[in-house]
Amino acid sequence: MIETYFNQFRDFVAQPWPWYVAGPLLALVMFVLLYFGHEFGISENFRLMCAADGADNMNEFFKIDWRSGEWNLLVALGAVFGGYLASHYFLGPQGDVAHISDATVNSLNAINIGVKANEVPLVPEFISWKGLLTWQGLLMIGGGGLMVGFGARYAGGCTSGHAISGLSALQLPSLVAVVGFFMGGLLITYLVIPYLF
Amino acid sequence: MSRYIFVGILLGFILYKSEAVSWFRIYEMFRFQSFHMFGIIGSAIVSGVVIVYLIKRKHMKNVEGKEITIKDKAKTYPRYLIGGFIFGMGWALAGACPAPMFILLGAGNTVFIVYLIAAMTGTFLYGKLRKSLPH
């Protein structure tokens, strides 16, 4: 009996979550963290991790009381668990597929990224250890990560800190940051990615 | 402290199940070929604006009994534009911003350890170059 309910619950959660469910829930995450006395901002974890790993002895940007940011490190750890649980127990009959539009499938095929409609994996083949052996993979994963870590701290936040928390609090700096995010993203999407494959 | 792990687990589910962690979804977003990602971020902002408004209006208190306040961000703009631009480039290249990186690691995509190390290197580099960068 309980098993049926549990299976029903699992199947319900395992469906793809629509935007109008995910978005408000993200705002809820922001609210819960505010209630606990903190602001939602994941990229701060990079600074905390650097400080915890000894960077605090090398540079005053990292001379922070990183232990007071422990809560954020736990959120990041929780996110790791969440990824594990969602991908292993709440996958649904199709597996982890990205339900991208046909237009996007066509655009990708046009730039030599071979994906088939309805069979698009969540993570591309080139984002993998094998992909890392190619310069494209190195650029995307290593270069991409480097730019995210550098840019997020330079801008004082990433999508969670600026696009969600900052804009919800009507902060003009966050709007400028988000405009920056998009300009950078568009440049890569239109002027770099098409020439990678 | 375990409350924060649960918040993180929820975050993991939200971004994983809504496919926001997918490189292809980010590409689709920058191509403006679907409303999906804009819907996620947009409805998060709309909900967030309402939440923040209610927090201020009702002088809501946090778990410690102190009124919830949101710090104003420093109003010096070059850092947001330049830093944001660099972040955006990284976001489009890797198809993942910080939270999706953690989530995909948990989902078994161990290659994101390289992303994490690269990101920490980037943050460290920022710390070193900070004094000579426009803010």
Task: Please describe the topology of this protein.
The complex is a heterodimer of chains A (197) and B (135).
Chain A: H1 2-14, H2 19-35, H3 44-52, H4 70-89, H5 102-110, H6 129-132, H7 135-155, H8 159-168, H9 172-191
Chain B: H1 2-17, H2 23-30, H3 36-57, H4 78-94, H5 98-106, H6 112-129
Helix pairs in contact in B: 1-5, 2-4, 5-6
Structure explained in plain terms:
The complex is a heterodimer of chains A (197) and B (135). Chain A is mostly helical and 197 residues long. The model of chain A has no long low-confidence stretch (mean pLDDT 95). By secondary structure, chain B is an all-alpha fold. Chain B is globular, with a radius of gyration of 18 Å. The two termini of chain B are 35 Å apart. The interface between A and B is large, with 127 and 114 residues.
Task: Fill in the keyword field for this structure.
heterodimer; A: 197 residues; mainly alpha; 62% helix; 0% strand; globular; B: 135 residues
